[in-house]
Write a structure and sequence with these properties.
The protein has three helices and nine strands.
């Protein structure tokens, strides 16, 4: 399925948002290392955490929810209260990655900027102002560009 565009895999894509002391909106962002699973995204910047739903996730009542929980637990440490909601879908048939994946975008508002990488391949990570991210849009993966423009521009 990973190479067959007649199938689209659901991918939870979680964006962490925090308002700093000045009221400025900041997002968790990082650069994807070369050891992460999706080789087509290596060295790209991203604002989304997430990944594939696995067959093991189907043992739970909601395979999707379990997959999202598992991916977050594998990739980051969230050491702050948060509130989340699903805010949209990404259907990007323009990119090789997008043709075989359907992104389900979740926005998590965190009380403190206390989200850190758990995986060594999530590098140069931290919260940055949206204005800074928009000024460097070309270095981001396609899905991050779509989300930054649609949700924060």
């Amino acid at each position: 399925m990973e190479q067959d565009p007649s199938y689209k895999q659901l991918i939870p894509y979680v964006i962490f948002r925090h308002r700093d002391a000045n009221g400025e909106t900041c997002l968790f962002q990082y650069t994807r290392g070369k050891g992460q699973g999706e080789s087509r995204l290596h060295s790209k910047r991203s604002i989304g955490i997430g990944g594939h739903i696995s067959a093991d996730d189907s043992a739970q009542a909601s395979a999707y929810e379990e997959g999202m929980r598992r991916e977050l637990e594998e990739e980051v440490v969230i050491d702050t209260p948060y509130r989340g909601r699903m805010v949209g879908l990404i259907n990007d048939d323009e990119s090789e990655v997008g043709r075989v994946h359907l992104g389900v975008v979740h926005l998590l508002d965190v009380d403190q900027p206390a989200v850190e990488p758990r995986e060594s391949e999530i590098i140069e990570a931290g919260f940055r102002p949206v204005s800074e991210l928009l000024a460097d849009l070309s270095r981001f993966e396609t899905w991050s560009q779509i989300c930054l423009k649609a949700l924060f521009a």
